[in-house]
Amino acid sequence: MRGDSHPIMTGNSSIFKLDNATLSLFKDVNTSIIISVIYMFVTAINLVGNGLSMWLLLFRTSPKTPSIIFMINLTLTDLAIGTALPFQIAYQLQGYNWKMGKHMCSFMTLIFYTNMYCSILTMMAIGIDRYLGIVRPMLFRETRERKTIAVVSCLFMWAVVLSVLYPLMTTDLTFDIPELGITTCFDMLKKDMLPDKTAWAAFLFSMVFVLFLFPFCVTTFCYVSVILKLTRDSKTAQKHRAIRLAFIVLLVFTLCFAPNNILLLIHTVLRLFYQKSVYMAYKLSLCFSCLNSCLDPFIYYFACKDFRQKLRQIINLQTLSSADLMKLEHKESLYTAP
């Protein structure tokens, strides 16, 4: 994200001079190729892993518990980013030249950021669900209409994310750069995209603190509480599985989400107030944020016993007799949220 430091702007044609950092980014072919290759791997793994996950969650996993509903929501956002990444790959390989119009640019950008923040909120919801099922089981059992609450929660997440990202839906995010003969998509932003610096501050606060930092703190609390509970009461297998799940979730946050959100805040503050930039680092962190869509199926594996069993049957990792399967289900149900 770049704010133009020059005040003379008319629509999408601006009287401005590219700074050296921006110019070097758009001319850096190697970085563009590296980002494109990362996106290619992510797209392939995303579509295969999440396609299989969606099939298992929709047609082979029953009953549809709140955790399953949250996982379906998470898989949906992952598949959306998987279908959007090829457009970003084409944009990168064409030298940051967007050829599909301003509406498609806004739509693809919206998908990109909606995936990130809906994933964050959904992982928080899964963490809360496991916390209630394992640490507060009595409260968990007293909750009525849990499936309805899960569906409403998913709709609420989408509403919150789309309301925060509303400026991306209503702004022309393309930007013509005549001296390079390219039209960028969400790589150059006008300062007047929002009315003033207060509006920019509110926009950034909502993205970084409301949609990232708060869910991160809640998710960390839930999984640490689950691990402590299982450490006291659980047998070794259940404890190790809970620790692996917590590790993967926190890895997704720290590897995929934290660098991007922190650099977004730093870059925009530097750009708006000090005319400096860390955009190259932000651009690289943005591509790593998509890795969450490849790691999410591992979350399903450790969080849902039914998903785990169906996947084992499909890939023939282990064959269980009916008696063994009943024993395993009984054992896992002791410490697995329904």
TrEMBL record:
Q: Name one GO biological process term.
A: blood coagulation
Query: Membrane topology per the record?
Result: Multi-pass membrane protein
Question: Where are the bilayer-spanning segments?
Answer: 33-58, 70-90, 110-128, 149-169, 199-224, 245-274, 280-303
Q: Which InterPro entries match?
A: GPCR_Rhodpsn (IPR000276), GPCR_Rhodpsn_7TM (IPR017452), Protea_act_rcpt (IPR003912)
Q: Pfam family example for this protein?
A: 7tm_1
Q: What keywords is this UniProt entry annotated with?
A: Cell membrane, Disulfide bond, G-protein coupled receptor, Glycoprotein, Membrane, Receptor, Transducer, Transmembrane, Transmembrane helix
Q: Which domain of life is it from?
A: Eukaryota
Q: Where is the G-protein coupled receptors family 1 profile domain?
A: 49-300
For this chain, one GO molecular function annotation is: thrombin-activated receptor activity
The record's subcellular location field reads:
Cell membrane
Does the entry annotate any disulfide bonds, and if so which pairs?
A: C105-C185
What are the record's GO terms for cellular component?
plasma membrane
As for family, the record states: Belongs to the G-protein coupled receptor 1 family.
The protein depicted here goes by the name P2Y receptor family member 8
Tell me the organism: Mastacembelus armatus
Classification from the root reads: Eukaryota, Metazoa, Chordata, Craniata, Vertebrata
